[in-house]
Specification:
elongated, alpha+beta, Alpha-Beta Plaits
């Protein structure tokens, strides 16, 4: 009796590992990507577009400011994703910098989100809805209530 009979090899022989088909993962497994993961990818892509001041509504931005103060960030703030098996739809709520044409900004955000989600997540994007809910005016002082002067202006 030699050592091979007493101690099996640490790794299975090559024949025991199924081959990877061209263009994909081995059969017998499933990948699930959460709505949170997709929303984070979309949020990071949207924030990268020049002219986006922040994502989310007024209350979400206030909560985000608190998170930032303690050193935490929510990259999915202002983003909602509906994920299917092969497709995804994304809704984004954002605040634009004053001076950026809003239709152009929405188109650039939409393109960035399509690109990032399809490349990084691997799902087909069926729609990206962009809601611009406010415009940030640089240098504007917040009113006494502590909210930006543009809060609620549409």
């Amino acid at each position: 009796m030699d050592n091979h009979d007493l101690y099996p090899p640490a790794t299975p022989p090559a024949a025991a590992v199924p081959p990877v088909p061209a263009g994909g993962a081995p059969d017998g497994g499933r990948t699930t990507i959460s709505e949170t993961a997709v929303a984070k990818v979309a949020g990071i892509a949207a924030r990268s577009v020049d002219g986006v001041y922040s994502l989310g509504s007024g209350s979400a931005r206030a909560l985000g400011a608190l998170r930032d103060a303690v050193g935490s960030a929510d990259h999915a703030q202002g983003v909602h994703a509906e994920v299917g098996e092969t497709e995804v739809a994304v809704d984004i709520s954002l605040v634009a910098f004053y001076g950026k044409p809003l239709q152009i900004l929405a188109d650039e955000v939409r393109a960035a989100v399509y690109r990032a989600v399809e490349q990084l997540v691997g799902l087909r994007v069926i729609e990206v809805n962009v809601e611009i809910n406010d415009v940030h005016v640089p240098g504007a002082k917040p009113p006494a209530g502590g909210r930006p002067a543009t809060e609620g202006v549409q």
